[in-house]
Each structure stands twice: as structure tokens, then as C-alpha cells.
TrEMBL record:
One of its GO terms (cellular component) is membrane. Its cofactor is heme. InterPro entries: CYP450_71D (IPR052306), Cyt_P450 (IPR001128), Cyt_P450_CS (IPR017972), Cyt_P450_E_grp-I (IPR002401), Cyt_P450_sf (IPR036396). It is a single-pass membrane protein. Residues 26-53 form a coiled coil. Heme binds at C239. The keyword Zinc does not apply. Its main location: membrane. This is Uncharacterized protein. It holds the Pfam family p450. It is found in: Membrane. Keywords: Coiled coil, Heme, Iron, Membrane, Metal-binding, Monooxygenase, Oxidoreductase, Transmembrane, Transmembrane helix.
Length: 303
């Protein structure tokens, strides 16, 4: 995944001059991509084969419950769809879950934790909320996530300052148009800088400040209707995984905040925490976040 993200998002001089075919050979990009494609394909092939073998065992009476790949294999075999589900279709769904689904959500969790460690009073407020909601159950599950209004605004503010796919996905214009006086010819590769839009002082007060409260009682949402805030993109090709992504961030974050108090390593001060980003398809932390968890023991609350 690390290599894939760098190569997919990395700068290649050959992209700037697509008609100079020699540059594509000289940059070595194509060769690197083909090599990586082979390795990724082999990993995905192995996952599918392992599931086929497990399925054979399960049919003879042993084995565990079905997972996503099992379901896709079953649908493929039963021919329930109007169109055939090929092995490549199944492999690409697995790749989507790893690349579009996990890399993004885990990156946002890491940024949200980093911002809260930099702003301990905000972490405290988020913990008070999570513990207030879940102490009666002594466990965090999905049922009450909608009650975590402050945590939700922390996630929104994290996505504003750290849109994990900062340049969205490259698009190609299918007709000629003019934007802000610039003529965009047909078939131009268009890149939208969601990172810069989220920090634009024309649209955001104190744009560089991490301030989750700006989203409390605000109608601004990431569903593609507010163009000053597009961490999931907008339009027809907006991220189709939003409904899965948000609980996938909320639930682990709520669990981390509920179960532990958190300290930076080696007595590091909050202002010393490095917030440098990587350059690639996704903008993750350059250096892993290292923290010390201190277990929290929920009180016994009468039902
Ligand atoms: C915090 C989590 C996530 C963020 C910030 C995010 C962001 C994005 C962005 C910015 C795009 C490009 C949209 C555009 O160019 O207009 C995108 C596309 C996509 N995302 Fe997500 N995503 C997240 C989670 C997920 C999840 C959980 C899945 C699926 C399990 C997913 C699947 C996809 C797919 C398949 C596309 C390509 C859609 C297309 O080109 O038509 N994403 N995502």
C-alpha cells in the first residue's frame, strides 16, 4: 500500500509532456507501475484462492462465517447478477477496500488523534462526551455513535485541515470549457486541490486553526454540496464510500478515547508534535504518531 500510494500520487515529468513518449521510458514510471501491478495482483490472487480453498472446506461442514470475499465468490458461482462477476471484478473490490477504504480511514484517525494531542482540552471534551454516552454500557458500539456531536465535529475539522486525498482523483475534461478566464482544452488532466480549498481564508475564519466548534450547529457538510469543503470530492464521481467511511472513523476513535487516556512519548510537549505530511495520493503523517495509552476503568453505573 505504501508503494502504491507514492506511485499513484507521485509527480512524474512524463505526465507534464504526454506527447513525448521517450520521457515515459526515461522516467521508468511505467516499468515501476507494471512491476508493482504484478505484485499487487499476486497478493489479490492469493486472497481469492485462499477463500476458494476455505469455502471448499466449509462446504464439507467445517469453517467460519462468510466474509466479503466469500459473499462475492458465492454470487459469482450462483450467477445471481445480470452480468458475470469476473475474478478481476472481485480482485478490484478487495483492492478498493484496502486502498480507498482502509488507507483513508486509518489516516484520518491518526490525524484526528494528532490534533487532539496538540489540543488536550479538545481531547478532554471528546472523552467526556464519549464516556458520558457509553459509561452506561461500559462498552463502545455503533448504536449511540450519532450522539457523539463533538467527536463528529472533530472528524469534520480533521478532514478540513487534513483531507486525506488532498488532490482528489485526477479527472479529464470531456469537452472544452473556460474556468476563471482560463481555457481548458478537451482531454486535459484536471487536478482539484481540496487541501488548499479547505484552508482558503476567503471561506474560513482563522483558516489554519484547528477549531472543531466551527462545525457544531453548522450546515456545512462533506456530501458534495458545499464547494469550500470537499474532502470526499463532489459531483458524479464523489467518493461512494462516505456512509462506510464515517462510522469506520467514529467507532475506532470513540473506542480509543473511551478505553484510554493518551500521553505523548518521552514527555514531549504538545507544541513539539511534528505534523509534517507525506506527498502522495494520500497525505498521511510523515512520522508515525507515537503515544502512550493509559487504561481507563469505566465506573459501575446503575441501569
Ligand atoms: C475518510 C475516508 C475517505 C475519504 C476522505 C475519501 C475520499 C475520496 C475522494 C476525495 C475521492 C475522489 C472524489 C473526486 O475526485 O471527486 C474518493 C473516491 C473513491 N472512494 Fe473514497 N474516501 C474515503 C473512504 C472510502 C471508503 C471507505 C471507500 C469504500 C470502501 C471508498 C471508495 C472510493 C472509491 C471506489 C472511489 C472512486 C470513485 C470514482 O472514481 O467513481 N472511499 N474518495
Amino acid at each position: 500500500m505504501d508503494e502504491l500510494v507514492v506511485l499513484f500520487g507521485g509527480f512524474s515529468v512524463a505526465d507534464m509532456y504526454p506527447s513525448v513518449k521517450l520521457l515515459q521510458v526515461m522516467s521508468g514510471m511505467r516499468r515501476k507501475l507494471e512491476k508493482l501491478h504484478k505484485r499487487v495482483d499476486q497478493i489479490l490472487e492469493n486472497i481469492v484462492n485462499e477463500h476458494r480453498e476455505k469455502k471448499a472446506k466449509r462446504e464439507s461442514g467445517r469453517g467460519e462465517a462468510e466474509d466479503l470475499v466469500d459473499v462475492l465468490l458465492r454470487v459469482q458461482k450462483d450467477g445471481e447478477l445480470e452480468f458475470p462477476l469476473t475474478n478481476n471484478n472481485i480482485k478490484v473490490v478487495i483492492l478498493d477496500i484496502f486502498s480507498a477504504g482502509s488507507e483513508t480511514s486509518s489516516g484520518v484517525i491518526e490525524w484526528a488523534m494528532s490534533e487532539m494531542l496538540k489540543n488536550p482540552e479538545m481531547m478532554k471534551m471528546a472523552q467526556v462526551e464519549v464516556r458520558h454516552v457509553f459509561d452506561r454500557k461500559r462498552n463502545v458500539d455503533e448504536t449511540c455513535l450519532h450522539e457523539l456531536k463533538y467527536l463528529n465535529s472533530i472528524i469534520k475539522e480533521t478532514l478540513r485541515l487534513h483531507p486525506i486525498v488532498p488532490l482528489l482523483l485526477p479527472r479529464e475534461s470531456n469537452e472544452q470549457c473556460t474556468i476563471n478566464g482560463y481555457e481548458i482544452p478537451v482531454k486535459t488532466k484536471v487536478i482539484v486541490n481540496a487541501w488548499a480549498i479547505g484552508r482558503d481564508p476567503k471561506h474560513w475564519n482563522e483558516a489554519e486553526k484547528f477549531d472543531p466548534e466551527r462545525f457544531l450547529n453548522s450546515a456545512i457538510d462533506f456530501k458534495g454540496a458545499c464547494f469550500e469543503y470537499i474532502p470526499f470530492g463532489a459531483g458524479r464521481r464523489i467518493c461512494p464510500g462516505i456512509a462506510f467511511a464515517i462510522p469506520n472513523i467514529e467507532l475506532p476513535l470513540a473506542q480509543l478515547l473511551y478505553r484510554f487516556d493518551w500521553k505523548l512519548l518521552g514527555g514531549m510537549k504538545q507544541e513539539e508534535l511534528d505534523m509534517t505530511e507525506t506527498f502522495g495520493l494520500t497525505a498521511r503523517r510523515k512520522n508515525d504518531l507515537q503515544v502512550i495509552p493509559i487504561p481507563y476503568h469505566p465506573p459501575h453505573v446503575k441501569e
